[in-house]
Amino acid sequence: MAFDIDMIKKVYDNMTSRVDAAREIVGRPLTLSEKILYSHLWEKTPSQMYKRGVDYVDFAPDRVACQDATAQMALLQFMHAGKKTVAVPTTVHCDHLILAKNGAEKDLAFAKTQSSEVFDFLSSVSNKYGIGFWKPGSGIIHQIVLENYAFPGGMMIGTDSHTVNAGGLGMLAIGVGGADAVDVMSGMSWELKFPKLIGVKLTGKLSGWTAPKDVILKVADILTVKGGTGAIVEYFGEGATNMSCTGKGTICNMGAEIGATTSTFGYDDSMRRYLTATGRQDVVDAADKVADYLTGDAEVYANPGQYFDQVIEINLSELEPHINGPFTPDRGTPVSKMKEEAAANGWPIKVEWGLIGSCTNSSYEDMARAVSIVNQAVEHGITPKAEFGVNPGSEQIRYTIERDGMIAAFEKLGTKVFTNACGPCIGQWDREGADKQEKNTIVHSFNRNFSKRADGNPNTHAFVTSPEMVAALAISGRLDFNPLTDALLNDKGEEIMLKAPFGDELPKRGFDVKDNGFQAPAEDGSGIVIAVSETSDRLQLLAPFQAWNGKNIIGAKLLIKAFGKCTTDHISMAGPWLRFRGHLDNISNNMLIGAVNAFNQKTNSVKNLLTGEYDTVPAVARAYKAAGIASVVVGDHNYGEGSSREHAAMEPRFLGVIAVLVKSFARIHETNLKKQGMLGLTFANEADYDKIQEDDVINFIDLVNFAPAKPLSIEFVHADGSKDVILANHTYNASQIGWFVAGSALNLIAAEA
Asked: What is the pTM (predicted TM-score) of this model?
């Protein structure tokens, strides 16, 4: 039986009347995305039509999921909210704090010792507040959600940008910061600007070396890392129904890499098969009763141009395997063009590592297709030229593929099988030799390939591709190897052509597991006491941020003018810093240390305007804070791209940054700034970015008139006494301005409690 089956049935019971009401109000057929949005309104039955990309709307998500790195801050905030238990089904998953180094058994044991304080804290808080807890080693949050919690037509939020993975089972699953999660866990509404809609029509059928991963790699190449911002991507067409459920999950997962609010597919037989195989026939029975409401109306898919804001069409029968990168997931190269692209750009041809797994590609089908390539290498005596690493997506996946001989097959090639956890995908990889910072190439089936993300080496050229292509490229040892046309030499000097990969969509003998790692919460957690040591360097109870004094902010200093791409990895790095995710003071020592200073083109080197000396970004921010001086961060386009980590907003807030002024924001980061009581602003004229100088003193001259749809005037006083007054736009509505006034959204929740 599925978790929370009664909740799921209630969603379906309400869905038909709410969707019917919405269809009547809107006056036309509805997309799947609209059906889910309108059936999850906080007001319950729709009473009006909402304008895409304009109206802020209150929603009532069905559930919340948190991973261990972000859960620490989310739960610390929830404790501050003063509630007795969570208002909706909620889970915590321990998958980020496990370093990949020696292999699953040793790495897991080390993590349990090194992070025992954090795991114990998360376990006890979950137990107290009615939260399901998935122990270290149980698996990656998004794979576990797909296996256990996702359901067609549902809405969930999660404190990880790849929460969108659950769209593979027909949900609207959206990545958020911890403060948003606290709202829903506390029984409050969740606010979102009503998204625009991008339709992707898939025709034809995948075959040969082309995999679901190639669909999203192609879409990323088309839309770029910001092309989906503020939009839901809805996939449909015969190509969609011909694809496996976990393949759909892969596509939705990497929707985060185009900035999309989320991605989804309509309910179909592949979802029925997957739900049944994972022990949720009761969900199938309930969903089948409302099946027409769990996909877009037929008229929508017949004439998509009339109903979507943008339509993309991809013929899967013609789609070629892609290899995206380096340094950005939207730089797409068809495998047939890689040889010339690599040569033209000077990319290292030798592949050092092939990494398979992550929340994006760690399903049974993914592993089976990759193993089909591995088995060919073993059978024909081909010695792999690169090292291999594998992260199974969950203990259920690991146990099942071990039973079916896949683990043994990987190990014949010398593969390191790491823990069922994120590992190298999020920088939790102790890669030997990475400290030498040598120029090299790795290939992986992960979702992101930003500079330094996997191993901390800025010279590692990381390329994203499907698991089967990872296997082929790692075995060949060459980035420009094309398995569709190129042969390999075996140990006897014979030329061998690899056959196209094949893998069962689902295990023929069914899934199996001995201990899935789940801990149910106590029925009554009121007597459980949560203890956090004052001397801990891992955990720190939160103090409320100071409320705005109602006056204009005068005399602020420029902290940094960030140049070019500035992702959440640049603002708050992961990797070794993950250990401090529950201690705001300690983790703030990584604030913006990866951002490039536009004035000297260096990282972590900014001018302290109090001394005239250059120092690290956190040190200068702390100096301004100690002097009672507010500071400002300036950035370029798509600022805050990447992870949902709210630490990228909380750290600047903690260190006295009052405003972030950029050309454009990534959606989640802009919301996180608002939630923490900061000013997230955009240039009314992007060229004004160039007017900002290193020694500027900044005055917010009309902040006292802060109001919805009213730009703010900001005065930049230069070192020579000259001034520029810049107009800054914002997207704050009245309630969001209330967060700023109160000092944070959490301050309001705590006051109400």
From this structure: 0.90
